């Protein structure tokens, strides 16, 4: 929270603006700077959405400036000066103010948790101990790029089926509410009709008399379903049902392990301990795997090796288990966890490719059968009538 403070310093009244988690934290910081608070006023400041600050772009530009030889404060001031009057300028201004107060960058970022995820803050904090901030940010950017690539593959595998369902549904509505009612008038003057023609005629008359209400009801039902799907409760329930499908559960596990290994590797390379890295990476795992990791961490704290503990709780693949063992023996655990993530990436990519090859033809067949059935019902009475006339 942002505070405007009037304080005494060496007998003189001064006015400062500070960021603090709460008033107690503020008073502690004022005391450490030799200030005695006279009045404290909490400001209502402009709150930004996460999307208003481009974290990836900021990271890339900061890396470039740091490698060019600028100090951290100079680099952030340069980025602020080039930014417009938008959300990024507000964030960078707050960052500069914190740095001028003598706070470490990780402490400043922690006051803006809506823009900087815990993993980012932890990466910066570990780099402050070694003095290699640019290298640490490079590792984080590479980490985010790899995860974004995996997410893109998963989303791409789902886009095509959604497009097919949308197009197929639109064709179905067109046939039901335009083609069939027009076509059914052919049979209206006939006395003896086959069953398929009777169905067509019944539906055509129903659409002519109540078509607007039926169409509105279908659209309203679709809108209601979409609205329900956007609620957290329904999404959670559907996700649990979806992931219970045996094969998909394995894909979910692979994706979770990819994120877990890559995060642990990033934090280990930054200087964090194994336990600290795993505790921070635990938030990326599904609930069941998170509980397993909690028990694994207890065993690791008691002195057991990582390569022996994680397989016991189902947190490895056969390849990653061997890589972890090699990493512990060679002292290159950070490198081996990153390689384990790469192997999980490749396995997940093969799984997505197999899913796409199987699911897309099945979906096309299903949509084709529905549309073909309607077309068959349209023309079958004509074939039957023609056969009766011979």
Automatic annotation (TrEMBL):
Keywords: Cell membrane, Membrane, Transmembrane, Transmembrane helix, Transport. Residues 58-181, 260-381 form the Type II secretion system protein GspF domain. GO terms for biological process: protein secretion. It is a multi-pass membrane protein. The chain crosses the membrane at residues 154-180, 211-229, 260-285, 362-382. It is found in: Cell inner membrane; Cell membrane. One of its GO terms (cellular component) is plasma membrane. Pfam families: T2SSF. Belongs to the GSP F family. PANTHER family: GENERAL SECRETION PATHWAY PROTEIN, TYPE II SECRETION SYSTEM PROTEIN F-RELATED. Component of the type II secretion system inner membrane complex required for the energy-dependent secretion of extracellular factors such as proteases and toxins from the periplasm. This is General secretion pathway protein F. It comes from Chitiniphilus eburneus.
